[in-house]
Amino acid sequence: MELLKANNISKRFGRKHVLNGLNMTIAPGKIIGLLGPNGSGKTTLMKIIAGLTPPDAGSITYPTDAMRGIDSKKTISFMPDSLAFPTWMKVSDAFTFYEKMYPDYDATQAQTMQEILGLPLDDTIRKMSKGMQERVALGVTFSRKTPLYLLDEPLGGIDPVGKKKVMQSILATHGEDASILLSTHLIKDVETVFDSIALLKGGKIVLEKDCEELRGETGQRVDDIYQEVFGDA
After folding, report:
1. Pairing of strands 148-152, 4-13
2. Which of 94, 148, 153, 200 has the fewest C-beta atoms lying within 10 Å of its C-beta?
3. What is the pLDDT of residue 72?
4. pTM, two decimal places
5. Residue 65 has what pLDDT?
6. How far is residue 106's CA from residue 146's CA, in Å, rounded to a whole number?
């Protein structure tokens, strides 16, 4: 069964074709690593899936009852690579902002994220380090109960201890039916949580594979496969 499917998605900005006939499926209850070098179109694909950017061609279909016929922004929780709320807010304000904006906000889940990520609720966001700001963004993203979470480079400014907390939050929130699409360059830090990977190159998914099957067939780690596909990219 599929949670959603990308069908022949194409997108260009000016003369640059970022996505070119891309096809991809996301199954329920999976953590998928969306992997590729800078400029490969990962962010663009996530914005299209989230309903924030229209494709030039192709479509996103939602075969499951959880998402069919509903505005995708209401059923997808997207953590972009920049903060989605004003930095003058306190951490507690950011959670209140999400509570008022999204009907699927879950107070119990929000509290779990606050505890796992060690979020100082009374601190002003603009005075926090980049890594702590990213923890806040992750916390509010996972404060919603949705079928799909999109995480665009959630680990860039987070220290090693923080990365462990991020992984805890992902595993704590990852329900039986919820899926997570996560883009990252820090493959070694997170590849153990991936159920499958999708490698994006030349505007297309060139490899979409279950990680356990991939390791069994090749005897290699995900990071090794990535290096083979992309080289020095």
Report:
1. unpaired
2. 153
3. 56
4. 0.91
5. 57
6. 10
Average per-residue pLDDT for the chain: 88
Q: 170 vs 5, 135, 142, 174, CA distance in Å?
A: 22, 12, 8, 6
Distance CA 115, CA 55 (A): 38
CA dihedral for 100, 105, 106, 112, sign (positive or negative): negative
Q: With contact defined as beta carbons under 8 Å apart, do 43 and 107 qualify?
A: no
Sheet strands (E) in the chain: 4-13, 16-26, 31-35, 57-61, 76-79, 148-152, 179-183, 196-201, 204-210
Return d(Cα 222, Cα 187) in angstroms, integer. Answer: 7
Q: Which domains does the chain have, with CATH numbers?
A: 4-230 (3.40.50.300)
Contact (Cβ atoms closer than 8 angstroms) between residue 127 and residue 93: no
Tell me what percent of the residues of the chain surpass a pLDDT of 70.
93
- Residues 186 and 157: their CA atoms lie apart, in Å, by 11
Per-residue pLDDT averaged across 178-196, rounded? 88
Q: pLDDT for 21-77, tens place per residue? A: 999 999 989 999 999 988 899 999 999 998 889 999 999 887 665 555 455 556 799
Q: Show the beta-strand stretches assigned E in 75-120.
A: 76-79
Q: How far apart are CA 15 and CA 69, in angstroms?
A: 33
**Are 46 and 152 spatial neighbours (Cβ–Cβ below 8 Å)?**
yes
What Cα–Cα distance (Å) separates residue 134 from each residue in 2, 65, 164? 30, 32, 13
